[in-house]
């Protein structure tokens, strides 16, 4: 199963991202980390998730190798941050993805990255 296709391709990824970031902006732990232009952050997230889930290499074609851990190093990220991020994503998926099995598969895939970014 290619998660990109199962999620509905680029449009499906966009829906998840658009549902996700309002939750992040309301989260007391995460909101302070996202003070920059949220539109550009959402665009980068959509590009990254597209290739992360098996779709086109949109992020790499524009920004080069993702090096996501290095890109997140300037920020203090704790396990609580990772948990909050995953919670926001879970709620976004509940709003945008019908299949419970697919939501579970997406979260399991994202857990690896979320906890990999923990640096404090």
From TrEMBL:
Gene Ontology molecular-function annotations: heme binding; metal ion binding; oxygen binding; oxygen carrier activity
**Superkingdom of the source?**
Bacteria
Q: Which InterPro entries match?
A: GlbO/GLB3-like, Globin-like_sf, Globin/Proto, Hemoglobin_trunc
Q: Is Metal-binding among the key words of this record? A: yes
UniProtKB keywords: Heme, Iron, Metal-binding, Transport
Short name of any one Pfam family annotated for the protein: Bac_globin
Q: Which Gene3D superfamilies match?
A: Globins
Q: Which family does it belong to?
A: Belongs to the truncated hemoglobin family. Group II subfamily.
The record ties this protein, via PANTHER family, to:
TWO-ON-TWO HEMOGLOBIN-3
What is this protein's name? Globin
């Amino acid at each position: 199963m290619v998660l990109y296709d199962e999620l509905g391709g680029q449009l499906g990824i966009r829906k998840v991202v658009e549902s996700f970031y309002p939750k992040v902006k309301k989260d007391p732990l995460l909101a302070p980390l996202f003070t920059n232009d949220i539109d550009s952050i959402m665009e980068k997230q959509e590009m990254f998730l597209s290739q992360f889930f098996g779709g086109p290499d949109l992020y790499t074609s524009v920004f080069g190798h993702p090096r996501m851990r290095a890109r997140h190093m300037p920020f203090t990220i704790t396990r609580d941050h990772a948990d909050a991020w995953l919670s926001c994503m879970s709620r976004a998926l509940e709003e945008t993805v019908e299949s419970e099995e697919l939501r579970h598969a997406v979260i399991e895939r994202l857990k690896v990255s979320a906890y990999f970014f923990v640096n404090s």
